[in-house]
Structures are given as C-alpha cells and as structure tokens.
Amino acid sequence: MIRAGVICCALLAATQALAETMTIDGTERTFAAFVPEKRPAPLVLVLHGNTQQGVDMQTRASWPEVARREQFVAIYPDGLNRAWADLRSGTEVVGRRPPAGTDDVAFLMALVAKYIKDGTADPKRIYIAGVSNGGAMTMTLACKEPQTFAAAAVMIMSFTATMAEACRPQQPIPMLLMNGTADTLIAYQGGRSTNQYALPNVWSTERTIGFWRKVNGCEAGNGATSNLPDKDREDSSTVTRIDSRCPPGQDVVLFRVNDGGHRMPGKGSDAKMPRAADAILGPQNHDIDGPDVIWEFFKRFAR
Q: Looking at the whole model, is its pTM more than 0.70?
C-alpha cells in the first residue's frame, strides 16, 4: 500500500522545499520537494550519498538555486539509514546499509508517480541524478526503469561487477558521468584503491562509459574531447569533457575531473569540514558546478 501525506508545511527559508512523508508497504519514507508555480514542470530526483540525507543535497550543492532559476520540481528523498538499496551485492557495499528488504526502486518510482498524477510533473521530462551511493541508485533506476526517465546523471560512481551483471535496460537512456581520476573510494581505473573505505570490484570509468555507449547504440571509443577552462587555479584539478558518437537523443557524456577526488564539483564546498574532506576524499573541483552542468544536459531531452 502507498499512502502520501504532508507532515510539515513550514517553508525552509534557504531551499523553499517542503518536508513530506510517504508510506511504502508499511514503512514511512521521508523526502523534501521544491515545486515551482508553473505546472506541469520538469522533475529531477536528487539522490544523496552514503551517510548523507536529502538535506545535504540542498545545503551542500546548488540544486535549490538551479531549480528555482530553471523552474523544475526538485525532489530530495532520504535513504533509510542514510543509504540506498541499489544493485550492488552485499560484499560490494562499504559504509551504511539500508534495512534488509528495503525497496528503493518502489519508493522512488512512487514519488515520480505521485507528482505526475497530481499534475505537478511533466511525465515526458523526468530526470534522476545521484552522487556516490546515490549515483549507484541512479544507475539502478536507469537499469530497471529507463522508460520513465528522460536522462540520468551519475557523480563519483562507476559500476561494480554485480551491478553490471544485473543491469539489462530495455531501452536507451541519455547518461552523464562525472568522475575524478584521484578518487580514493571509487577507483577511476577500476579495481580497489588503498583507502580502507574504498569500494571493491569497481569497474573503471572507461568501462562503465562503454557499457552505456553500447546500451545507447553509440560507437565504441571516445568522441569529441575538450579541456574546459581552469577557472580555479587553486583547486588542484581540471575538467575534460568527453563526448560519444551516439544516435540523436541517446547521448553519453563523461566529465573527467583530472586529479579530482571523491567530491561533487561545485561553486561552494560540498563538505562541512573542507580541510578534513580534502585530506580523506581528495580535492573538490570548482571549475564547473555539478548541478548546473547536469541540468544543461538534462534539459535537452524528453521522452
């Protein structure tokens, strides 16, 4: 049984997102939503990383600013125990885990259905973006429900062996990846890094991109490649955009953050303690803003 209801109508001053709950098979789930005045509007599901909550995506990234400016619905769901139940096997999960039996596909699809049903969201313009564990959940939905989403974006995450084996999308889906070459948790070249919190059995970013190119009917290998302006000379990193040779409307794009760590590129800091994050997770790039780049990619596509 699915039951939705508003539990808090207080406007969050910084984000203009309302906190709500939804009950999925007897489990109460929480999320926050920003809804623009003009409807139906595009909708973006924004998925947090492991140990985080939806509020971190509102306060540690520019999603609220971009959503207000571009007038799309921004949904910030909370994973149970601050984690998502994605396609990885138990041996491939590091950090927090949701309770056994958690069905996050059902939860997130119910959220989409709720906003389509009430006329808030345009069913042809539903998008999903996630960071780290949220990126794994994004790819899980792209694998299982590609017909729902007009495009998907994954930050600082690649396939694991189990995820790739379980991923059998029935149709193409435009895909953007944004990974750092010095990521200490998700090894850019694949395998496992020396960090004790690193994910095992990770595919390389190149292999992950190759998977989505095949799904989307693209040619093998890189397409046009361009080095983006190094706007912040003090962030110890640069960005290269790597396109693919794909059929129209089935784009696959990689933003390679050269010497970037396990961090979300952005205008401001993505961590409460930036120095500690730099030491543990590596540098954060400030040459591009993740949400801005992702929305520019998303808005080109509709189902």
A: yes
